Automatic annotation (TrEMBL):
<dbReference type="GO" id="GO:0003904">
    <property type="term" value="F:deoxyribodipyrimidine photo-lyase activity"/>
</dbReference>
<keyword id="KW-0285">Flavoprotein</keyword>
<dbReference type="InterPro" id="IPR002081">
    <property type="entry name" value="Cryptochrome/DNA_photolyase_1"/>
</dbReference>
<dbReference type="Pfam" id="PF00875">
    <property type="entry name" value="DNA_photolyase"/>
</dbReference>
<dbReference type="InterPro" id="IPR036155">
    <property type="entry name" value="Crypto/Photolyase_N_sf"/>
</dbReference>
<dbReference type="InterPro" id="IPR036134">
    <property type="entry name" value="Crypto/Photolyase_FAD-like_sf"/>
</dbReference>
<dbReference type="InterPro" id="IPR005101">
    <property type="entry name" value="Cryptochr/Photolyase_FAD-bd"/>
</dbReference>
<dbReference type="InterPro" id="IPR018394">
    <property type="entry name" value="DNA_photolyase_1_CS_C"/>
</dbReference>
<comment type="similarity">
    <text>Belongs to the DNA photolyase family.</text>
</comment>
<keyword id="KW-0274">FAD</keyword>
<protein>
    <submittedName>
        <fullName>Deoxyribodipyrimidine photo-lyase</fullName>
        <ecNumber>4.1.99.3</ecNumber>
    </submittedName>
</protein>
<keyword id="KW-0456">Lyase</keyword>
<keyword id="KW-0157">Chromophore</keyword>
<dbReference type="Pfam" id="PF03441">
    <property type="entry name" value="FAD_binding_7"/>
</dbReference>
<dbReference type="InterPro" id="IPR006050">
    <property type="entry name" value="DNA_photolyase_N"/>
</dbReference>
<feature type="domain" description="Photolyase/cryptochrome alpha/beta">
    <location>
        <begin position="1"/>
        <end position="134"/>
    </location>
</feature>
<dbReference type="InterPro" id="IPR014729">
    <property type="entry name" value="Rossmann-like_a/b/a_fold"/>
</dbReference>
Amino acid sequence: MTCLMWFRDDLRLHDNQALSCAAQAAALDDAPLVAVFLDEPAYPGTRPLGGATMWWRERSLYALAHDLAEHSVELIRAAGDARETIPCLALELGATTVTWTRRYHGPLREVYAAVKETLTARGITATSSPGFTLVEPWEVNNDQGQPYKVFTPFSKAAASQVAGDEPEEVPEGVPEMGASASIACSWPKPPEPAWAASLAAHWTPGEAGARERMAQLDLANYAEERDIPALNATSLLSPHLRFGEVSPREVWFAAAEEPEAAKFHSELLWRDFAWHRLYHLPNLATQNVREKFNRFAWSWDDPRLKDWQAGTTGIPLVDAGMRELWATGYMHNRVRMVVGSFLTKNLGIHWRLGEEWFWDTLVDADAASNPFNWQWVAGCGDDAAPFFRIFNPETQAKRFDPEDEYVRRWAPALSAPPIVDLQQSRQAALDAYAEIKD
């Protein structure tokens, strides 16, 4: 007899409500706690992880397996459709309880509802827990009972509902290190692909890396400096949040002790907003939220896409951002807006091609934030930047990188001429928008 904790995008021990639930059940039944990670197929309506997120996840799992082993908990790795594999594994292990952290994408919700139904029918307690977002998507609605489509009222409503309880430590029922002999961890160290060597120089995937990053959180000048890419004044917690190596609730409470907490909390709420919108719009990665943009003349086969991807557009700030992305799996948020605007408005290339490139190259790409932010910058999403707000990369560079420090770091030598005239392409974008705005 065992209790089974199913890890997914919650690769941590601290403040993990699903793990707490499994540990409590194990203590009640006087049964061992076993953990599992399942390599699942891309279900209809979903897609496989990109290269950068897969690189991160494998290293995060390696760290989690060793952390659990120090607590005498084994992490099993299995593969298959969750609807079949998890119930079969639970029976094989003699599990009386299976717990997991919820997901909010429609196609996945259907899969896990089927898992719960099968487990329950077999007499196994199945429990899903919150923890990936600050507030559950169905808990934040306007006065008409409808989900918010505009961020400001959403953020006020959601902030008022953030749980007031302090984040949990490693839950009771998970043996303390040293309390019993740790188990030998046979989890293999993931191979290091040649293309990812520079990623390892910039990141430490896993809960320990996340907690170290959170401990360094300094928001003293966050509001003034977060838009300056050369300063690295952002938290750099987004990939750790992506894989649940730290909970958004714990980050929220850690930030609350800092000056400028309100602005940083707003960024956490923006992440929640994206997930709440995905909950209601499961096709966010493939369909324009604003349907009038279905008529917009974006290009799907512009050869300049390769210049954008390679950082060879001849536009210094754009090229610096794209090269930072390739080298680190990350891009400063201000620069993300600039390169997204440049692709969709100056080059007229469909936002989905940019979103797909980010999906493959960003270590923090997730199913909600990535398409949500691309639709925002393209002007076709919820509460989106108006289409006529076209970021001028030269103006942005003068304002946020006036000494060219960021550009010199990532794109020190630009010899190619610009692939597009910024003013002419801006006007062309406005003319194209005029044809569909009514």
